[in-house]
Amino acid sequence: MDCIFCKIANGEIPSTTLYEDDDLRVIFDINPTSAGHALILPKEHAASLLEYPAEKLGHIFEIAQKVGKSMEKGLHADGVNILANCRPAAGQSVDHFHVHVIPRYANQPEKDALVIETHEIPKPDLDALAKAIQENL
Ligand code: 5GP
Ligand code: ZN
After folding, report:
1. Which of 44, 63, 90, 133 is most buried, judging by how many CB atoms fall within 10 Å of its CB?
2. Whose C-alpha lies nearest to ligand 1, atom 8?
């Protein structure tokens, strides 16, 4: 399979590596949202977080927490966004599960803050929405 993140995660393509273990590699995003923007790449291919083995997610997020704390300490970030886009409709552009760890700075809120836009939508039927999700949990 021709997957760029498989190649980077497994060291076939060299990258500046912040952290590596048997399961994952942490690198810098080539097109960062802020200085230090990192990506956690599992070495095992999965199309997105939704396909990744559930029992291994804990380790990925342990490392995300470690990297986020290190950004606060080492980069003096005031906060971090930790997120995974799943599917193109949600903004996923590389078809290999990855977690973004993005340092944020209080003095640059317009430039750096991640804004989740809200839209005017017809008033949702919350009971119906909850039922549709719960039936599929
Ligand atoms: P997504 O949009 O899928 O959540 O995020 C993909 C991220 O991967 C983007 O922020 C993009 O800049 C980054 N990216 C894409 N190709 C490469 C690459 O070859 N190397 C690195 N380091 N980052 C990449
Ligand atoms: Zn892959």
Report:
1. 63
2. 29
